[in-house]
Amino acid sequence: MKQAPSPLFSAIRWVALAATLSFGVAHADDYADVAQLVRNGKLPEAMAKADQYLAAKPRDPQMRFLKGVIQRDSGKNTEAIATFTRLTEDYPELPEPYNNLAVLYAGQSQFDKARTALEMAIRTNPSYTTAHENLGDVYAKLASQAYGKALQLDANNAAVPPKLALIRELFNPATSKGQRPASTLSTPAPAAPPTVAAPAKPAPEPVASKPATPAMPAANATPAQTATAAAAPATQPKAEPASGADVRKDVETAVRNWAKAWAARDMKGYLSAYGRDFDTPGGVKRSAWEEERRQRITGKSKISVTVSNLNITVNGSKATAKFRQDYKANELAVSSRKVLELTKTGDRWLIVRESVGN
Q1: At 334, phi and psi to the nearest 5?
Q2: Which residues of 105-141 are buried (b: 16+ CB within 10 A; e: fewer)?
Q3: Which CA distances in Å does 335 have to 18, 96, 143?
Q4: Cα(355)–Cα(208) distance, rounded to whole angstroms?
Q5: Is 197 helix (H, G, I), strand (E, B) or coil?
Q6: Where is the signal peptide (predicted)?
Q7: What's the farthest any 2 CA atoms get from each other in the chain?
Q8: Residues 6+ apart with CB under 8 A from 151
Q9: Is 192's pLDDT higher than 70?
């Protein structure tokens, strides 16, 4: 019999599968078959099929991730922790195994370990909203423990009981109106076409609207036509200056040179693509971030970074580049949506912020 999860274990979100992970579609049917067996509650059959697959491809990240899900659903939490821990060691670029480790640790009331795992997930992907939300829940539980200890030491402290009651209410499904149901600890979904994104929430997060990009003059417009457009009444939308295409081309060149330096493991070229005001993940020191990137990039024997579906908007000295990034390194292949925010510094466009999954 499985042990019932604690309120916090039910509250923080378990990433059931890698519809978030993507390592190619060649074996999508194998992933989907195992996921379907898990959904149907046929955990022994799912484990047998996963083990059979891994006997031929022992380093496959997605099937190993699935195996950890099966172990957790089978009540074998210690084995699941070992599986996800090895995944974080072999594929530190992936935030989802860190998140699931945190959920497992929280289920064992090891909240310090859960906090550390979630901080690693966020450091790997600062845009990983599930990890941010889970970290808030873990902090709340740690606060509950601290308030409880304070009350033991000083039972007359009138300020503590209301705080403690508030946190306990937050994690009491019977009283908390905003409590996420335990059903968020779902079973795997079938493998999806290649894409890496933050795990789906009940509703997608709104994306901040951006002003529409002014229309460009036609590519074959004559000087007279351009002058006529410029003289249009103020109530008409202003045409983008003729140099707008050149500006976007400069931004595109900066983005592609960044990807090229990354793929070539050219650390000088790669790091120089980031501005002095770059918003480092988690607010770590620039030197620490650079050292981490240097170790991760130069530690790979081969890297491929492909930029596609590039969409660039420019607003004065600021630009935003949105694109699909296909990253391959050794046996790892990840496809994701990427956003780079750049500013014009001198005659160069430099990255000041980057995020994944937007």
Answers
A1: -135, 135
A2: bbbeeebebbbbbbbbbbbbbbbbebbeebbebbebb
A3: 12, 15, 38
A4: 14
A5: coil
A6: 1-28
A7: 84
A8: 157, 160, 161, 164
A9: no
Between 358 and 284, the more confident residue is 284
Segment 43-53, tens digit of pLDDT: 999 999 999 99
Strands (E), the chain: 303-315, 318-329, 332-345, 348-356
Return the structure tokens found at 227. Answer: 């002058």
CA angle 73, 74, 75 (to 5 degrees): 90
pTM of the model: 0.49
Helix (H, G, I), strand (E, B) or coil at 18: coil
Q: Does residue 161 sit in helix, strand or coil?
A: helix
Tokens at residue 186, please? 């779902």
pLDDT number for residue 242: 43
275-280 own/partner pairs: CB under 8 Å, 24+ apart: 275/342, 275/343, 275/345, 275/350, 275/351, 275/352, 277/343, 277/352, 278/350, 278/351, 278/352, 278/353, 279/352, 279/353
Tokens of residue 107, six digits = 């289920």
At which residue do the structure tokens 């898990």 appear? Answer: 38
Q: Burial letters for 255-292: b for 16+ Cβ neighbours within 10 Å, e otherwise?
A: bebbbebbbebeeeebbebbbeebebbeeeeeeebbee
On the question of pLDDT at 290 being above 50, the answer is yes
